[in-house]
Amino acid sequence: MPDGSRRPEPDLLEVRGVTFKAGGRMLVDHIDLALRPGIVTVILGPNGAGKSLLLRLMHGLLTPASGEILMPGAGATARTRRGQAMVFQAPVLLRRSAKANIAYALKLRGVSRAERNARAITALEQAGLAHLADSPARRLSGGEQQRLALARALALEPKILFLDEPTASLDPASARAIEGVIGDTHARGVKVVLVTHDVGQAKRLAGEVVFLNRGKVTEISPAKSFFKRPESVPARQFLAGEIVE
Ligand SMILES: Nc1ncnc2c1ncn2[C@@H]1O[C@H](COP(=O)(O)OP(=O)(O)O)[C@@H](O)[C@H]1O
Ligand SMILES: [Mg+2]
């Protein structure tokens, strides 16, 4: 390559002018966002800002009213979301063992029976749940259930992992365990996109912060500068613990 310069890695996903409306309200308002590899993106903002909607739009669970969501390299606007996985705030688990919950998710993705078991075990290990592989999923504690939901997502071997307030209903110790798994996942090269309204968690995990308020992105900043001095007024108010206008 001339002068040894390396081309920057392409974005994994691009949101262009995306809007989402319901009941006559503009809930997601002309958002532009590029998801770069190698950095944890935290989407931060007050309740009702549109964080979950934005995540669902990126994951293809909702269709934008206008704009587009592109996965460069994957061809045109992505319809199928292979290469992505999502963990929701409240996990939905089947009445079977932890391992079988993961194996079932893999079956739905067309993974062969022989491979399902090995991938389930690896994912359980990554989530620190190997010792509970054969336990009924619904008898696990809240924190363990959420870690299982995370393991199930990891078993899909996504390039992008979307997490929607994955620790919102957990005690601090369980939340820290999940944060540990999220950090390890990032370190393995998976793009992590985390939605939270928890400033402490954002500080611990973010590489960059996308601040969302009333359906609009008010700023996208490197985490360091964001927490030192956010650029937008709503973000400043939010960090100061004030009611965001
Ligand atoms: N399917 C929907 N239909 C109508 N309104 C919705 C729908 N989903 C969410 N909303 C509204 O959109 C706003 C943003 O929701 P949401 O993305 O869940 O916020 P956040 O995750 O930031 O707390 C809220 O006012 C919510 O009530
Ligand atoms: Mg939400």
Summarize the model shown.
With 245 residues, the chain is of the alpha/beta class. It has helices spanning 51-58, 98-108, 113-126, 142-155, 172-187, 199-205, 223-228, 233-239, and strands at residues 13-22, 25-35, 41-44, 66-70, 84-87, 160-164, 191-196, 208-213, 216-222. The termini are far apart.
Secondary structure tally, helices: 8
By CATH, the superfamily of the domain at 7-83 and 160-168 and 190-245 comes out as: P-loop containing nucleotide triphosphate hydrolases
**Series of secondary-structure elements, N-terminal to C-terminal:** EEEHEEHHHEHEHEEHH
In the predicted model, the low-confidence regions spanning at least 5 consecutive residues are 76-80
Strand content: 15-25%
Name of the CATH class of the domain at 7-83 and 160-168 and 190-245: Alpha Beta
Mean pLDDT: 92
Shape-level CATH architecture of the domain at 7-83 and 160-168 and 190-245: 3-Layer(aba) Sandwich
Oligomeric organization of the protein chains = single chain
Biggest beta sheet attributes: 6 strands, mixed
